[in-house]
Amino acid sequence: MFGSVFGSTGRALLAVLALACASATQAADEPVVIKFAHVVAENTPKGQGALMFKRLAEERLPGRVRVEVYPNSSLFGDGKEMEALLLGDVQMLAPSLAKFEQYTRKVQIFDLPFLFDDIQAVDNFQRSPQGQSLLSSMQGKGILGLAYWHNGMKQLSANRLLLEPGDARGLKFRVQASDVLNEQFRELRAISRKMSFAEVYQGLQTGVVNGTENTWSNYESQKVNEVQKYFTESNHGLVDYMVITNAKFWNGLPPDLRTELAKIMAEVTVQVNLEAERLNRDARQRILASGTSEIHSLTAQQRADWRAAMQPVWQKFRDNVGADFLQAAEASNRPH
Q1: Is-contact 241 151, C-beta < 8 A?
Q2: Judging by DSSP bridges, how do beta strands 191-194 and 211-214 pair with one another?
């Protein structure tokens, strides 16, 4: 009797174990799902980069990874996406660098005016130990950076020609929500007004603001040249993105999978940044060809004057970003 009871119990136990093993095998066979959400259109460098990442990941890791791309705030809006990432409701985002101010103040270095001479200098800094350290600086808060994606260098626009720092005095400029950018215009004795990107055209048209700062591609896509007489090719700042992931999700991936996805991200980043450069170059040419606006480039002396005028802004945020980061950023202006 004891033997028969033991036998039936053993068979039941084996059945349970078999079912558990089958479930585990089934779960192991299911691909890792990566939801990549962003807030711009698919025909932008960021939008194309997300689609390229999806294509390469699914081609090179067939059956192991599925990437779902959600453009145009179709999954989470601008104000909710970071919260969604931290909750694990989305696995990848590519927010503007200005969005990370509340997580690490060191990222404010990218907003400091006239710090980087050009996009090559930005690349040099982002590849430096200091630039790379920023990608992992928010891990303790659940955010891991994977790459920097360019939008481009910022130019100034206004209804008055801006060639010297004093030319901006008294004008009202639209800015992103950034302490550094507010201080930048305050130092010029100008007025800064936070305004959403979508409201810029009307704001300039009606005189709520007199000028702004942005990349050539953003100016052209929003037809800002229709309501701004003058553009100054200043290359004074940066609009870039950081591709980020949920740190717990990323660190929990099988090592071989994580390594391959990191390689794919690096490959996509090269293409995104080349596309951003081409897009800005073409947009500048179209603005010039439209005849609606004048584009003026700063001379070497004028640029030096602007840079000198912005030194108090650098000093105000020196402790936030760190003297070593400032030194590395200035060194990035020299060819490596």
Answers
A1: yes
A2: unpaired
What one-character-per-residue DSSP string does 107-132 give?
GGGGGSTT--SSHHHHHHHHHSHHHH
Contacts of 219 (CB under 8 A, 6+ apart): 155, 157, 225, 228, 231, 283, 287
User: How far is CA 9 from each of CA 1, 18, 20, 21, 157, rounded to the nearest angstrom?
Assistant: 12, 14, 17, 18, 80
**Residues whose CB is less than 8 angstroms from the CB of residue 50 and which lie 6 or more positions away in sequence, other chains included:** 36, 38, 42, 69, 71, 92, 94
The values of phi and psi at residue 225, to 5°, are -65, -20
Give the model confidence (pLDDT) of 280-298 as tens digits.
Answer: 999 999 999 999 999 999 9
One-letter amino acid at 252 equals: G
Please give the Cα distance from 187 to 307 (Å, whole number).
12
* 158 within 8 A of 168, measured Cβ to Cβ: yes
Spatial contact of 296 and 230, defined as CB atoms under 8 Å apart: yes
Residue 7 confidence (pLDDT): 57
189-227 pLDDT per residue, tens: 999 998 877 788 999 999 999 999 999 988 988 899 999
pLDDT interval class at 185 (50, 70, 90): very high
- 179-187 vs 311-321: helix axis angle to the nearest 10? 160
Predicted TM-score (pTM) of the model is 0.83
CA distance 113 to 115: 5
Between the two ends of the chain, the Cα-to-Cα distance in Å is: 83
DSSP 197: G
- Residue 14 CA, chain-centre distance (Å), reads 53
- Residue 13: its pLDDT value, please? 52
CA angle 103, 105, 106 (to 5 degrees): 115
- Please say whether the beta carbons of 119 and 328 come within 8 A: no
| Rounded Cα–Cα distance for residues 312 and 275 (Å) | 35
For residue 25, what pLDDT is reported?
Answer: 39
Task: Give residue-wise pLDDT tens across range 221-264.
Answer: 889 999 999 999 999 999 999 999 999 999 999 999 999 999 99
